[in-house]
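Allow me, if you will, to draw on your knowledge of protein folds for a short while. The matter concerns a single protein, recorded as an amino acid sequence and a row of backbone structure tokens. Kindly check, if you would, that the fold set down in the tokens agrees with what the sequence suggests. You will find the record immediately after this paragraph.
***
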Amino acid sequence: MKQSMILLHGLFGGLSNWHGVVQNFESRYDIHIPPLPIYDQHNQDNLDYLVNYLENYIQQHHLEKLILIGNSLGGHVAILYTHRHPEMVDKLILTGSSGLYENNSLGSFPKRGNYNYIRERVAYTFYDPATATDELVDEVFKTTTNAAKCMRIVRMAKSAQRNYVGPILPEIPTNTLLIWGEEDKISPPDVAHEFLQFLPNASLVMLPKCGHAPMMELPELFNESLERFLLESQG
């Protein structure tokens, strides 16, 4: 029976962000990419809503002994879930995770209807601006032109900024891998080292010439780091 691997995308992310990981690991792992309900209307704290969604998803699919991988906001959700349910998570992988510090301009970003501005902001996510393909920019632009989605994006971002995970990280015993871009301008390298300091059982891999989404920008190096971690931490 294949071990379950859950991939959690970021605020503007989607299922396609994990294409390289899926291609590399789908033959050996039971991979799940739940679409986080960022745009849902609800009365809960936004981040709690996402964690509750993940809890329900895992229960409904009868998953256990999880490999939980999260990018940016998805990493934040993964941290909170693992803190609540350490017995459910076998391994935790964080890449560009929020929870300690994020440098973003989401307060103004979603309000802009200028396509070139959106392209600049998407390119800011990566070390190599060419990674911001027309398809990716179009997807984000479409989202930012929807007033209701914009409002919920801003609220979600503010919820994440309020939710500082520093105090709970020492309480997470899970074997953890941090994969970080050396040129991450949104969650800078200092943030990765702070996670490493707070988490009791963590290791860090820094990827050169890489920004906020290593699994998209350097998928081969990301997969190599993940592969090595999974092999070394077996059992």
Summary: Residues 72 and 96 are 5 Å apart (CA to CA). Strands lie at 3-8, 29-32, 66-71, 89-95, 175-181, 202-207.
